[in-house]
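As a representative case, the lines below give one protein's residues and fold tokens.
***
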Amino acid sequence: MSILKSSKDAAALVNDNELIKWIGFVEKFLVKSEAPFKALTELNEELITKSVVLGNGLKPSAADVIVFSVIHSNVISLSSSDRAKLPHLLRWMDYIQNKEEFAKLFETVSIEKTQFIPQALKTVKKVEDSNAKKTVPEKKDSSSSEKVDLKEKKPADSTKKSEEVSQAAVDKKKLPEKEVDKKEEELSVSLLKIQIGLIHKAWKHPSADSLLVEEIDIGEAKCRQVVSGLAKYCIPDQLTNRRVVLITNVKPGKLRDVMSEGLVLCASNQDHTVVEPLIAPEGAKIGECVTFSGHDGKPEDVLNPKKKQLDKITPHLSTDGTGVATFKGIPFMTSSGPCTSTIPNASIK
């Protein structure tokens, strides 16, 4: 009351009904029989919607000063649990002790401040929290949608796999083509080294009645010795000084103990009753290689018997209807023209 009396407007304040009401309120704390915590609880309820005890604004009044001064000792002695029950009172106490010059008169009431969130912001926060809660299922949905996407992607992956399988199938299909290409390469007549030769001498094989042995000049320093199965079809004198066509890159080997270093190509009718060596054209040079249009590959140095290259190529050698020797219809060519035979549509071996 001394603080109130010290005010210049003391008389006017005493006559203020609201002020008198608050003076009556603080008298409860002066009577020991009254329960102070109950009165503090009532004040806490009063301050729920107020910043100051008297007035509609934020400016503390004489009533705020009086109430603060009287209840200070009761509030500062409260336990933490009791203080927690009076949040609005403590907010008001903190506001008054920082607004008025009470630092020298009263011990500062220690307040554990919590962030004040206006009602409007609380509403916004609730909405945001609500949205956040909704977002969580959405995330689940998104994850599930991702799963769905994954499921949807699975067909794409399966499509991709099927495409890969299809591609693999295509590749597999291509493999035979490559094999065919490889076979074509193996079947190419260019692998054979076919040359024009001149038989200088021929004689019967010493231990085989069906074989003849020829000494053939192909332009090398030494003549080649070749064993041929021509004994049934011609005599040695018919072959002497005759131009022939022979394969010279076959692997040398013995036939009935006689070395053979080549293969004389002969035409044969269907029943093999007529067989004769291919005829090289007049003017063809000894040792020149026979060529085939479109087959410009390099001949093998020596044919590999294990690959059976010769066995794969010779079925495609034949004479046409006019007796011209061919490989799949392509003529055996020399510098003087094609090689021929008197047997049309014959096989060549």
About this structure: The mean pLDDT is 80. Residues 119-187 form the longest helix (69 residues). The first strand starts at residue 194 and ends at 204. The radius of gyration is 61 Å.
